[in-house]
Design goal:
The structure is a homodimer.
Chain A: H1 12-37, H2 48-52, E1 59-60, H3 61-67, H4 72-84, E2 88-92, E3 100-104, H5 106-129, H6 135-151
Antiparallel strand pairs in A: 1-3, 2-3
Helix pairs in contact in A: 3-4
Chain B binds a DNA duplex (24 and 24 nucleotides) through helix 4.
Chain lengths: ~160, ~160
DNA sequence: CTTATGTCAGGGATACTGACATGT
DNA sequence: CACATGTCAGTAACCCTGACATAA
C-alpha cells in the first residue's frame, strides 16, 4: 500500500488533469491576493468574474451574466455586493429605457486597472520563466484544448456491461 | 455602449485569464460527460476528485483528502456516496489496525480505467491539434505558471489611496 | 492517555430554478 | 398585453470548522 502524497497512477494523463485543473486556482489566488493586499479588502473570489466581464463604460446585467456563463440572478447578487462596496453603480441605459447599465465607479476603475496591471505582470514573469515556448503558444494550445473537449469525438463511448 | 458578447477589455491579459480559467471547466466537463455517457450515470463533478487520487489497491481517507487538498470530512462524504453507488469499498488496513482503506470495487476499477482511457484519448487529440508545440511543453508551462503565481513577487503592491 | 482516524452537526459561499415585479 | 429586464425566495452542490466517537 502506497501511502505517500504522490497521487495515484501518476502517469501522463493524470498529470495533465492535475496541471490544467490546478492552473485556474493558482491564477485566481494570485489575482485575489494581490487585489486584497492592494487595499480592496472585502473582495471575494466570485467578485472577480464581474470585473473580468465589465466594460469600462458600463454593461447590462444580462450581458454580464452571459459572458460569465452564469444565471443573471447570481450575477445580480455579486453586483449588489460590489455596489455596496462602492465599486459599481447602476445607471439608466441611455439607449434603452427598459434597462440599466452596471458601470464601474472611480474606485471600480482603479480596481480594474490594478487587476489588469497585475495580470500583465504575471504574464511577463511567466514569459520569462518559459524556456522553449511562448505564452502565446500556450494560450493557443489552451484554445485548442477547449475545442477538443467540446467536440469530444472520443467516438461513441461504449456503454457499461455489454462492451465485450 | 458596447453590447456584444465580446468580453470587456479583450486584451492579452484578460484573454490569458479567461483561457486558463476556462480550461479547467472544459476538461472536467468532458470527463464527466464521457463517464456519464458510458453508464456511470450518478457520478457528480466532485466525485472525480476521489478517483483522481485513488490508488488501485486502496488509499486512506486522510491521504485522499490531503491529495485533493480538502478536508477529510468533505472527502469522507464523497466516499460514502461512491460506496453507496458500488464503486468503492472500505476495508481494514492490513498494516494499521486503527485505520481503513478506501478501495475501488470491480465497478470502480472499470470507471477508473474508462476515465483514464478518455483522458489519454483527449491528450492524443490535443497533441494532434497542436501545430507548433507539444502537450509536454504546455504542461511544463503550466507548472511554471503555478510557480510564478505562488512566488508572486509582483513586488510590493502599492496600497490604495496613497500611491501618487 | 495520547494519537490517528473517521463521523456527526452546523454553517458558509456559490450559483441554480421558479415565481414575480416593473417598465416599455 | 407581450416582452425584456431585474428581484425575491427557496434550494442544491460543495466544502468548511468544531465537536465527538473509536480503536491502537
Amino acid at each position: 500500500v502506497t501511502d505517500t502524497l504522490e497521487p495515484a497512477g501518476a502517469d501522463d494523463a493524470m498529470a495533465m488533469i492535475r496541471l490544467v485543473k490546478g492552473a485556474k486556482g493558482h491564477i485566481e489566488g494570485s489575482v485575489l491576493r494581490y487585489l486584497r493586499a492592494a487595499g480592496f479588502d472585502a473582495l471575494r473570489l466570485a467578485h472577480l468574474q464581474v470585473f473580468e466581464n465589465l466594460d469600462r463604460d458600463g454593461t447590462h446585467l444580462t450581458t454580464l451574466s452571459e459572458r460569465a456563463a452564469m444565471s443573471h440572478q447570481a450575477m445580480g447578487e455579486l453586483v449588489v455586493e460590489l455596489v455596496d462596496q462602492g465599486y459599481l453603480e447602476r445607471i439608466a441605459d441611455p439607449e434603452d429605457g427598459r434597462s440599466r447599465l452596471v458601470r464601474p465607479t472611480a474606485a471600480g476603475l482603479a480596481l480594474l486597472d490594478r487587476g489588469r496591471q497585475h495580470v500583465v505582470a504575471l504574464r511577463e514573469q511567466w514569459e520569462r520563466s518559459l524556456g522553449d515556448a511562448t505564452v502565446a503558444q500556450v494560450l493557443e494550445a489552451l484554445t485548442a484544448l477547449a475545442r477538443v473537449c467540446e467536440v469530444d469525438s472520443s467516438a461513441d463511448p461504449p456503454r457499461r456491461g455489454r462492451s465485450r
